[in-house]
Design a protein that fits this description.
This protein has 458 residues and is of the alpha/beta class. The chain folds into two domains: 6-65 and 227-450, Aminopeptidase (3-Layer(aba) Sandwich), CATH 3.40.630; 68-224, 3-Layer(bba) Sandwich (Glucose Oxidase, domain 1), CATH 3.50.30.30. The chain contains 13 helices and 14 strands. Helix 4 (113-119) links the parallel strand 4 (99-107) and strand 5 (127-131). The two termini are 44 Å apart.
């Protein structure tokens, strides 16, 4: 069994290289897809690649549907009148169109199919509100985009996405995906604003008020939807083989956030693992291609660009890092690729490190652009005590929430796993597109079709 040399593991656990890069990325601030900040982040990653001694470091540009935020507000009238326009209360959701609507508020709880069905005809001409929470009883995460589309399809004229995490943190997140812009104005509101709106709606129901006598919500959303460009940062280490092991992350982050854990940490880890592998480059039998994708948050555009412009047979496997610095417990979504799962579990055992795995084929994360084609690909993250996304996609995803020791531990484990993949220890088996298609959970099939990302012919 080929093990990462002790000196490299020791280097990983004493290095400041990755943490320094992460700090610089968070200090950039807005790294929204297509923005100047996203390009600055990618350029900083290229600088790190070059400093690490990696070759062919540079940028790969591609086109995306851009979105720029303007001012947004939410007003409520009825028994209580309030106006919200500050960014700690209400923000537009990327992919929303501009628009103004005034309509009765209908609270659909967590936005499950059952709750939408129970709302029935009351959603016609209403503003629908759904929580960011997914009930523990569900066997998969319900994406905000699904709740948004469900509201629109049932006749809602506006959508409010309320956070279930306290702290005056309105959530952001794409709702258009590959169907930009979406059909109705959409905003995210903090838990505190959302709880008030839910209380007012519940009180109106309890009082038996006639339709139209409950709380009325006015949304005013200003934004811009226009084509633009994004970039991937790329580099290589190891022998010049046709086939490559891919180590990836995404460098973009939502404009309201520093994007520390989601996903500055992933980009920093890609560069740090690249640096570590460069110190044992002579051991590698297969080229390792390092990529930090642009535009993950708005529909995996950078990953799709890479997958569509690279022959399938040139990709041995993909290790994608996303949200991998919230703890030292590695979580690996294996998408059913057992050979890759076995490597990560064995590495964790070697280092006496905790690990959790999931076999579910998930379309969330850049690895999906490769998984859909049958290319072995996993997403590595870390576990968190917080419910759902936690601080992700809010103003609070900042450097102070993270620990450099966690970053070093994850770098050690990922470097050890990629080292094995690149030294011929394991050759993950590719699958057919049909076998992947047939193994996807029905709920995810619906989500992919709803978001315009279903890659298979009917």
């Amino acid at each position: 069994m080929t093990e990462l040399p002790d000196r490299v593991a020791g280097d990983a656990r004493t290095s400041d290289f990755g943490w320094d890069l992460l700090t610089d990325l968070t200090d950039i601030g807005n790294r929204m897809a297509g923005s100047t900040g996203e390009r600055r982040g990618a350029e900083r990653v290229v600088e790190a690649f070059e400093a690490a001694g990696l070759r062919n470091a540079g940028l790969d540009e591609f086109e995306i549907p851009g979105w720029w935020r303007g001012e947004s507000s939410l007003s409520v009238s009825g028994a209580v009148e309030r106006h919200h326009e500050d960014s700690h209360e209400v923000i537009a959701l990327p992919g929303t169109p501009s628009g103004e609507v005034t309509a009765p508020l209908v609270d659909v709880g967590d936005g499950t199919d059952e709750e939408f069905a129970a709302a029935g005809d009351t959603l016609e001409g209403a503003v629908a509100m759904a929580s960011s929470r997914t009930p523990e009883s569900r066997d998969r995460w319900i994406h905000r985009m699904e709740k948004y589309v469900a509201a629109s399809e049932r006749g809602a004229v506006g959508f409010v996405f309320r956070n279930h995490i306290e702290g005056a943190l309105p959530p952001t997140g794409e709702i258009g995906y590959h169907n930009r812009p979406g059909p109705i104005p959409a905003v995210g509101v903090s838990k505190e604003v959302g709880d008030r709106l839910a209380r007012l709606a519940e009180a109106a129901d309890a009082d038996g008020l006639a339709e139209g006598d409950g709380p009325t919500v006015s949304l005013d959303v200003d934004c811009r939807n226009e084509p633009t460009t994004s970039v991937n940062a790329v580099a290589e280490v190891g022998p010049d083989t046709d086939e490559a092991v891919y180590l990836t992350a995404h460098v973009d982050a939502h404009d309201v956030s520093d994007g520390a854990n989601d996903n500055g940490a992933g980009s920093a880890l890609v560069a740090e693992v690249g640096r570590l592998l460069a110190t044992v480059e002579g051991d590698l039998d297969t080229r390792v291609r390092l990529v930090t994708f642009g535009s993950e948050e708005i529909g995996l555009w950078g990953a799709y660009h890479a997958a569509e412009t690279t022959p399938r047979e040139e990709i041995a496997c993909v290790v994608n890092l996303d949200g991998a610095c919230s703890s030292r417990t590695l979580r690996v979504g294996t998408n059913g690729f057992d050979g890759m799962r076995a490597v990560f579990e064995d590495v964790a055992d070697t280092f006496d490190a905790p690990i959790t795995t999931s076999e579910t084929i998930s379309p969330h994360g850049d690895q999906w652009a490769f998984v859909q084609e049958g290319i072995p690909a996993v997403m590595a993250s870390t576990t968190s005590d917080q419910s759902g996304r936690g601080w992700g996609h809010t103003h609070a995803d900042t450097l102070d929430k993270l620990d450099s020791r966690d970053l070093r531990e994850v770098a050690t484990l990922v470097a050890a796993a990629v080292y094995r993949f690149a030294t011929g220890e394991t050759e993950p088996e590719h699958r057919s597109r049909e076998s992947i298609r047939d193994a996807i959970d029905e709920g995810y099939v619906e989500e992919l079709k709803t978001g315009g990302r279903w890659p298979y012919e009917e």
